[in-house]
């Protein structure tokens, strides 16, 4: 074999080897952060799921009376359509009082059982609704039933959202008498954990009986009642903040 041929073959072999060595590996999917506890000591982030409802103003007014803030995780079309006039007014009222609004997905479906397009649709539609109604795109999403998987986390990360769970379920939406819910709150307050991230719901008994009693007891125990974003160290509650839109025919469920 001629020397020139050997050189060509060696050069070709080296180039193939170099390409092989530098071939990129599989791209690692970015997963959304998942929070189930507050990170700032001595804080409590009261959260309320499954709204908007007619009890939003009662809850908001009680929190405002004590000069504390809560976080409301909204559906688009679960117990009522978010685009109904009264529901839009309640979302605006809660947001206007300085409480945090966030996503609980459009139809309260089990995200872990859905395909990627369905998950995106569940997230996108309620994000769009909140942007239209109060001008914000939420940075936090609570998966219904605390159900999620890596597919959900991947899609949430791509949409700029973190997942928020809870470390105390008040059980207020499971038929538990409000006196029992209050007793369970008292029990955990007496244990005085460093932080607390309770799950509540936007329902009548919670609005009229549980929240006034619990807020008073939490404050008496020395806790600061803040939003989820604040209890996580001052994260941004929203990806963007702008002006609300003007309702048109596309605002429907």
Task: Give the helices and strands, then pairings.
Blueprint: H1 3-21, E1 34-35, E2 43-44, E3 47-51, H2 56-65, E4 71-74, H3 85-96, E5 100-103, H4 116-134, E6 136-138, E7 140-141, H5 150-158, E8 162-164, E9 168-169, H6 178-191, E10 198-201, H7 204-220, E11 224-225, H8 228-231, E12 238-241
Describe this protein's structure:
The chain has helices spanning 3-21, 56-65, 85-96, 116-134, 150-158, 178-191, 204-220, 228-231, and strands at 34-35, 43-44, 47-51, 71-74, 100-103, 136-138, 140-141, 162-164, 168-169, 198-201, 224-225, 238-241. The protein is α/β, with parallel strands linked by helices. The chain has one domain (34-241): TIM Barrel (Alpha-Beta Barrel). The strands form four sheets. It has a five-stranded parallel beta sheet. It has a three-stranded parallel beta sheet with strand order 1-8-7, with helices on one face. The protein has a two-stranded parallel sheet with strand order 2-11. It is globular. One of its GO terms (molecular function) is hydrolase activity, acting on carbon-nitrogen (but not peptide) bonds. Residues 1-18 form the signal peptide. InterPro entries: Glyco_hydro/deAcase_b/a-brl, NODB_dom.
